[in-house]
Amino acid sequence: MTPGRRSSTFTRLLRHGFTDPSAAERLLDGPELGPVRDDPVLLEALGATADPDLALDGLVRLLEAQDDPGARRSLLDTVIAAKPLRDRLLGVLGASAALADHLARHPTDWQVLVTYEPQDLHPGLAEFERGLAEATDPVTLRVAYRRCLLSIAARDVCGTTDVAETAAELADLATATLRAALDMARRAAPEDAAACRLAVIAMGKCGGHELNYVSDVDVIFVAEAAEGTPEPKALRSATALASHLMRICSETTVEGSIWPVDANLRPEGRNGPLVRTLSSHLAYYQRWAKTWEFQALLKARPVAGDPDLGRAYLDALHPLVWQAADRENFVADVQRMRRRVVENIPVAEVDRELKLGPGGLRDVEFAVQLLQLVHGRTDPTLRSGTTLDALQALAGGGYVGREDAARLDEAYRFLRSMEHRIQLYRLRRTHLVPEAEADQRRLGRSLGLRTDPVTGLNREWRRHTGVVRRLHEKLFYRPLLDAVAQLAPGETRLSPEAARARLVALGYADPAAAMRHLEALSSGVTRKAAIQRTLLPVMLGWFADSADPDAGLLNFRKVSDALGKTPWYLRLLRDEGAAAENLARVLSAGRLAPDLLMRAPEAVALLGDGDSGGLAPRDRVPLEQEIMAAVGRAADAGQGVTAARGVRRRELFRTAAADIVGSYGTEANAPETDQGALVDRVGAAVSDLTAATLAGTLRAVVREGWGDALPTRFAIIGMGRFGGHELGYGSDADVLFVHEPHEGADEQEASAAANRIVAEMRRLLQLPSADPPLLIDAGLRPEGKSGPLVRTLKSYEAYYRRWSLVWESQALLRAEPVAGDEELGRRFTALVDPLRYPARGLGEDAVREIRRLKARMESERLPRGADPKLHTKLGPGGLSDVEWTVQLLQLRHAHHEPGLRTTRTREALAAARDAGLLPAAEAEILDEAWVLATRVRNAVMLVRGRAGDTFPTEPRELAAVGRYLGHGAGHAGDMLDAYRRTARRARTVVEELFYAD
Question: Which residues are within 8 A (CB) of 314 and not within 5 positions of it... i.e. 6 or more apart?
Fold first, then answer.
């Protein structure tokens, strides 16, 4: 071959899509293709395939496998002369290495692609049964199955059938295969066949007439005894036949396997009997079945065995499918099912998942099936087991917008086509888009993307998954808006009854009120209504994902009424990606955050990701600077404290919103997994905010009453959770007040001034207003409520030296200056350090006294009727158990272990672990219990709007607490069990560390 000839052929091969022209040139020059190597028809046909290199290699292998030169010549002549065969054969060879292997093993099977009769264009079940008729054993059944599959693939890659028709043909071929396998099983065991009537019910994609190239075939078996046969014997015979059928299809032979037959959708799954009678099936579904099992029955279809029994099965069970939406737990089940299950997908594969990934096939299928369950009760036209047929029926009935349905149909067809071509290549069950460029190139070309197949494939794939992601939620809610806003002329709209049914199914307890809110939000021609019509379909889905969708929608209407005419509000929700979702989460998570927001709706700006600071907590210094500046501008102390309380309200909202969003997660970010970090952020933020508010209030009161002439120095000492930086949303501020008269000042005048400051601070911080009050509790002061509110530093010194009790030393472990004179605060902590970190530790009498006090507190303060095991503060393994255990370790060892000298529980616990005072495993148990109990208390305040130490009893409130803690809908019982289990483990450690001698 001359160099010029080689260069010319090389170039032509490149132009026709070959990626390895040198190898292709050698194959074309080989003896097999010698007679036609220069025929332009062959090269053009190869270039039209998905993978010309693969197609050429497969053709050469097929020619090599022919028995004699005459057969080889006959194949070549047919390929060149008959365009239908050429397109079919080369199309298959260029798309499927597995079918090329089959042809190489069975070199005469190419002839099934020659015939082009009308029935060959769109064969049905009868044609496939004829194609399998000659199979006599599992091996010949596999060969016949592949031969039929060859014809299906040929029609698919040539465009003779679309993706839906291909899926239906694959389901028909599966049906014929199941029938052939059952016949083999019966012939192998005629006595078993005579003892029973057995029906095979196809489920899943096979039942829905939308099967993949390679997929498990889901089935359910139902049997009845033949006349004169006892039922137990009949069931044993039916089980033997069913098991043999499954082995015939699933086992690997010299010709490989066909596909696994999966019977796990049967009642009780793998734990249940393989075969049941019809009455046993019916009893199970009437009493025990879950919502997802009725969802699965949408696709049930008798395919093999006794046809009368199969029809009886459907007649008995189908009515139950359409009653599923009336079940008591339907809403919880729906909410649970609607959360995409991606936890089991490896992180590296999520973005390549066609089926379960975001915007994948499962999103479409689930959405359609859910709407069928809700509306199919009253509309029999919706009861198709085929996804695309059901989607078309939903659009025709007005249950889905026609434009949305058309776009979803297009996206689903594209994604299913991708799935088909990926599986066809190796005939392997996979839903992952390949990563290799060569695989993506072949895949793109097989879908008609020829100019730049890799770029085009990824662009179209992302476009269609994006469509599915956007429409997945919109599909449920857009028709509701159209029903109330009377938009989209010419479309069939949901009836009021259908709209109500949909809202109830999606968790709305008061559908009539929800429809009124939707009408108010979306009706009209204003810019506000137009933007809200765009936002609502997605926001309604976010509301429905919460424990109280009704509250979320109502609160959104309130915020919209307050801010709807404000340009920045609508722009924020429309343009800032996180704002709308964050708002939906916050408005539907409970009462506290919405209440805080309604008092000053402009705080909604914090939910965006712009210049407002977002939801990140603010540090103490800038907070205090802002409050001090506001106090400085105020005309009097009342205005100054009002400004400080306004900042506090806004920052409480910021903290609560960040906590909710972090706990729930968003579409872009998974929920925060470090529960301790969430607790620490809330505790630090609320404690810093409380300290800054007290500092500003102190400044306002002193400025108005004394100006720069206050006769005493004044400091506020944080105690309890405040001093420990562990305040919750509903915590009071535990404090001590200390003062020290200036040199030369009258002590009585200084004391009076200090007491006036305290009284005025408490009054101003509790005045009724739009802002939540800040309650100051000085009950931990010397002599308790009987003692003076304010003492001088010398008075504290004299009292602690002479009268201090062990409980006061324990309380002082949390003492930390929070506001006022810093130097006086430092001197106070220096004064109490010897008390809280005693040089000799604790004597046995003191330890016994602490234990006695704890027992007394638990017996006297635990509310009557409360379940101790669920009381987060005083119950076994609760906050009191953990904190008193840690504090006992501090009192005993902090003098010698500097790490224990901290006011924070978790820090002290970690320091005790590091010092070897308790094993790491026990420290982890105590830490987990303390964090969980704190999270529960925060959740109760967020949900109910008032503090509480026990779980709510009202179901919606309990469910909302569960959602905050990471438990899905319907798992409130699991949440309570998890709390009891965590607390029980902690109590075991407490009994060892706190009570053991």
Answer: 201, 300, 301, 302
